[in-house]
Amino acid sequence: MEEKQLSDSINLARQLFLEGNYVESKRLCLEILTKRPEDLNILYLLGQISWELGSKEEAVSYFIKCTELNSHAVGAIRYIGIFFFEKKEYKLAIQSFLSILSHKPDIISYQMLSIIYLLLGLTDESFTYARNACSLDPKNKFLVQQMLINSLFCDKLNCKDIFDLHLEWMDRQVESVTLFRSPQLSSRYLDKKIRIGYLCHDTFKQSVSFFFEPVIKNHDRQRFEIVIYATYPEEDTYAQRLKTYVDFWRNVSSLEEKEIAEIVYQDKIDIFVDVTGHTAPGSNNKLLAFAYKPAPIQMSWLAYPATTGLRTIDYRITDEWADPVGMTEAYHIEKLIRIPQGFLCYQPEEESPEIAGAPCESNSHITFGCFTLQAKITPEVIRVWSSILQSIENSELHLKYKHFQNPDVRSAFLERFTENGIEESRIRFLDFQPLYRDHLACYQHLDIVLDPFPYNGTTSTHEALWMGVPVITLTGNDHRSRVGVSILTRLGLADLIADSIEDYIQIAVSLSKDKERIQELRRTLRLKMLNSPLTRAKEFTTQLEAEYSRLWKAFLETEA
Questions:
Q1: Could you give the 3-state DSSP secondary structure of residue 248?
Q2: Where does 187-345+543-559 sit in CATH, by number?
Q3: pLDDT at 188
Q4: Buried (b) or exposed (e) across 198-212, using 16+ Cβ within 10 A?
Q5: How far apart are the first and last CA of the chain?
Q6: Which of 58, 72, 109, 403 has the most beta carbons within 10 angstroms of its beta carbon?
Q7: In 3D, which of 207, 208, 201, 195 has the Cα closest to residue 302?
Q8: With a threshold of 0.70, does the pTM exceed it?
């Protein structure tokens, strides 16, 4: 090929790639490569084409050639990092993204490192990289939500830090948002029912469903009209069941936030409740619909254990134990509404395994455990748990969460335990169980559950107690660190609530020596739960509805 013909061919190959004609673009690139075997641009384009065609191994071979020609080939290194991330080879992915950052700031590298370090339980590092990503693109709502979630796992951030962070970054997100016009109250006065709209991502079977379904199922349909705005695109049997409890179901997963707000406004929703907060991933997160203020009263409840940071959300549903009066108001932009029975209610699995005897009855050692999100098990938590294990001879710790199936994740956690003087043989990772009944059965292998901090477990705590396993929690100064307090207090187990790290360790040591108490709790905890506010769904829903009615009446009186 002559030089001009070669240049034209390169431009054509790029154009074909942009048009999605990958096969013809690749044919042309390979032809060019015979003339220019070390052309960096053609090698990179071939890598991109192979990637789009699904031949990622081949793509990486081209990208590696790019890095051999130019060690600063950021695009190629980024692809290599993503390749290793998708293969869940996290340590190799880290190397790629750190290599890029050694040359220049890079938003994707920051974001990917934040995700990986959270998987590995390095929460402070994860937050730092998330914040770096946001600094490069402060209007990117997905990056901001990732950073805000990551802040909840951090040891180094205090309550005020987390509040200030949420407020600062959510204010930036809504700078250009125009509030909707005022509702037509005349039509609302005539309605016999209060219209409640729930914006929810968790309309599939997972942890939040154990607390959301009992409320939806027990709403008084004579007094309330219920609408669910589902942001999860697919519908499983759980979603089909939820549909039978509500008046209207709208799948809004494909809509933008302003479009959702317009629908909510047109539906004349009186009280609009967010169930998800910042926890829904990527495009499924529609929290900013609340920024348009489509309903007269807007609330946050259930999944997110902190302020949303949105000034247009009026209230947050909680209780006196998770948010004691005078303690946490300063950390919320929302006004706190405390439900007397507690801020949530648990619906146990119908086909739960039978209670088995505590393993310490036949073993010569105590088995501790934690089956919650690995990101909650921070380096500080590992340090404290290691002190407990060192204080109790031959004791073991069983960890269970889906990400622990990954060798790099297990290795990272084991390394931190060994740094704290605990042999690897005393830490066991249990297999992921796709069937929920089998998952619950794994609690039969535990004597005591250790609640992480500062971000407590919620579903995992209820599961453990339901299976007869006592849970020890450490109290903090905000909602995320007081969920354990709320649960255990309502169950009459305040003696398992620690006020300090020293107290937390002492309670664990004392309980481990009291085999009779462990066995007694094993036999009685399930019945205790059934007779406690934790599972009284009808009573909880009635109290929640009373607050809805009170707030709606007050609003009408104010607007009259």
A1: strand
A2: 3.40.50.11380
A3: 60
A4: bbbbbbbeebbbbbb
A5: 82
A6: 109
A7: 208
A8: yes
